[in-house]
Amino acid sequence: MQRAGFILTGGRSSRMGSDKALFPWHGTTVVEHLSGMVASVAGSSTLVGHPERYSHLGLPCLADLRPECGPLSGIETALAGTSAEWNLILACDVPEVTAALIGSLFDRAIVAGAGVTLVRDAAGTLQPLCAVYHRRSLAAVRAALDGNDLRLLDVVHHLQPAFFDTVQHVPNINTPEEWRAALLR
C-alpha cells in the first residue's frame, strides 16, 4: 500500500467547548465527513485519538501512543501504525478541505519525495496537520517526542519539507463563531 489517511481527533477542543470532531457537518459529523473523503483519496481512513469516544461510528481508531503530548503524538501513532509509504495527516478541525486538494497534495508529496509535504495556503500559512508524511519520518518524530520537543513546526523543518501551494484557504475551525461562519459558507 502506497497511501493511507489519518485524522487526528485527540485534541481537547478547549476553545470550542466540546468535541469538534463530532459536530454536525452537512448531514453527518465532521469526522465522518472527513473520513469518507480521506478514504476516497487515500484508500483508507483511520482516526487517531480516543477509541472509546468514536466507537459508535464504526470507524477504525488508534489510541495515541503518548496521550497529552499534542499533535506530534498523533503523528507518531499514525506513522507507527501504517504500512503505507505516504500518509496523510489531517486535523479534524478542517472540514472544508476538499478531496481534490488532498489528491493533489499526495501527488506533490510523491514527486517531491520529502519527509513531509504540507499545504501552504493562499495566506502563506503552513498547515502541518494537512500534510503527507513519509513513513521514514517516524524516527525524527519519535526523537522529538523523546526529547520533549513538542513544537510541530520544529519537527517539520527538521524533515526538510516540500510544499504544496494552493490558492484555497484551509481554515481551522476552533471556536463556536468560526463554526457558525463555516456552516454558512
Give me the count of strands.
Answer: 9
Q: What structural class should be given to the helix and strand makeup?
A: alpha/beta
Helical content (DSSP H or I, runs of 4+) = 25-40%
Q: What's the pLDDT, averaged over the residues?
A: 91
Q: Assign the CATH class.
A: Alpha Beta
Number of helices: 7
Radius of gyration, rounded? 15 Å
Question: Any overview of this molecule?
Answer:
The structure is a single chain. This protein is of the alpha/beta class and 185 residues long. The chain has a single domain (3-184), classed as Spore Coat Polysaccharide Biosynthesis Protein SpsA, Chain A (Alpha-Beta Complex), CATH 3.90.550. 36% of the residues lie in helices and 22% in strands. The protein is built from seven helices and nine strands. The protein has helices at 30-42, 51-54, 71-80, 99-112, 138-146, 152-158, 176-184; strands at residues 3-8, 24-25, 28-29, 46-49, 61-63, 86-91, 116-120, 126-134, 162-165. Strands 5-4-1-6-8-7-9 form a seven-stranded mixed sheet, with helices on both faces. Strands 2-3 form a two-stranded antiparallel sheet. Strand 7 (116-120) and strand 8 form a beta hairpin. Helix 1 (30-42) packs across helix 4.
Topology:
Layout: E1 3-8, E2 24-25, E3 28-29, H1 30-42, E4 46-49, H2 51-54, E5 61-63, H3 71-80, E6 86-91, H4 99-112, E7 116-120, E8 126-134, H5 138-146, H6 152-158, E9 162-165, H7 176-184
Parallel strand pairs: 1-4, 1-6, 4-5, 7-9
Antiparallel strand pairs: 2-3, 6-8, 7-8
Helix pairs in contact: 1-4, 3-5
